[in-house]
Design goal:
Chain lengths: 290, 248
Amino acid sequence: MISYLKRALANMAANVFLTFTTLFTIALSVLIAGCFFLFFENFVRVAHDWNQGIRVMAYLDSAFTPDDLPRVLADMENMQAVTEIRFISRQTALEELQKDLESSGVELSNLGENPLPHALEIVLSSSLETLEQVDAFVAEAEKKPHIEEVVYGHRWVEGILPMLNTLEMVALGLGTLFVITALFVSANTVRLTFCAKQEEIEIMRLVGATEAFVNTPFYLEGIIQGCLGGITGIMVLFLLFRWVKTAIPPELVFLSPASIEFLSPTMTGGIMAASIFLGWLGCFISLKQH
Amino acid sequence: MERNRSIIQLFDVSKQYGARYALKNITLSVQTGELVFITGPSGAGKSTLLNLLYMATPVSQGQIIVGGMNLARLSSEKIPYLRRRIGVVFQDFKLIPHRSVYDNISLVLEAAGQPPAVIRKKVARVLERTGMMAYMGALPPSLSGGEQQKVAVARAVVGDPDIILADEPTGSLDACSAEVITRYLMEYRERGTTIIIASHNTALINRTGFDSLYTLDAGTLKPRGENTGPGMKNSSSSTCMEGGDILP
């Protein structure tokens, strides 16, 4: 195997231009596919976070007393799609509001009597994927005792929820096309590279070389090129990612730098494996054709 | 090696390219250690006949037996083992352009799984005998046609084959180099190696001598002569040294 490896490396050194062309094409394909997966992974995560964040506020009526809380909580917990409930007393609500308004200089201590009602903050399950489902929940919750009004400030969810689903589908379709194109271009480049070596392969066969002797170094060469191309592509992608991440302004609420991450180890491993497979596949097709 | 025993036999062999016959109904037997010349005009089928013997091209009709192997029944996995018993000097040399002279020759031994020490020794020997030692690191495109032909001959003989097939082996060589190479090939004949040379160089045939001489004409084989004696072996008219230098 060492002699095969030596021959593979000697072949690469002897055909510097072809080797670099193949490496460049694989690296570019990895970069394109990696960009897509980077976007897709982050998009799915952010969308998931948004979806997880649908909260509704149930304001309790004036007849509610703290003694009623266990029954009210039990009523709400029995409803489907409720994953978390937090009771916010009038006093806590006022304190939180005062904290939120601190930076704008508004002073609530002058209000006299606390005008805020007791409330329940309810986190809904991500299984509620449409606005109709959220509305149905609200309507049902408002029928419960001591519940005066249920509101949710996320009206943008109306547009976001179906859009997220559509975007996910479109992104997946486009990404698949990207990956197939990258696969095709890379495998074809490797194939053309090996076609240029047909004369060498023919000569080796004519002087008594077995198929294993002829093919193994070429497969190794394809695998090495795939591996190096993959590493190069992922490294460039990482540098680009770092640059983009630092360029995102912190004011961007929905896309704070902390919320975007580089490819997961699984995805990185998958891209590397695909890259190595590309090198091998191009070689395999080429050798099978001749 | 035992002489007077057929190492190559062709029975009613034909080779067709489309409707055209390149070779037609060839029957031929070559004894072990024989020197056989096949002559004929360009396009007569000399190269095709040699190609059939090492399975560079499949036969269309008939049977070929080489070294006891029936080529029609030889599986593709066994072809390399047949080719290792045959050293071929190709008319167009077939040298790998981006590999050095040394690597082109050592390839034969590497393919046969020879240990590195043996490879170094054998390659050095044939390089020296063909006068190409100084060019061992050179790439084939930087060599003259004659030098490339010497490399092709060195590669053909380095594996000590049972059979040497040479297609116009001195075609690109000057008279002196041709003599060196021919004499070198004759050394293998003396050792019992069977040699088949396709050539239309009558001067070479007359100078070398032969055991059998055939003429191919439009794909048909005609015997022309047998056993003209040792030829070059006892020649006293040689003016060349083994390295290719002219003797004083």
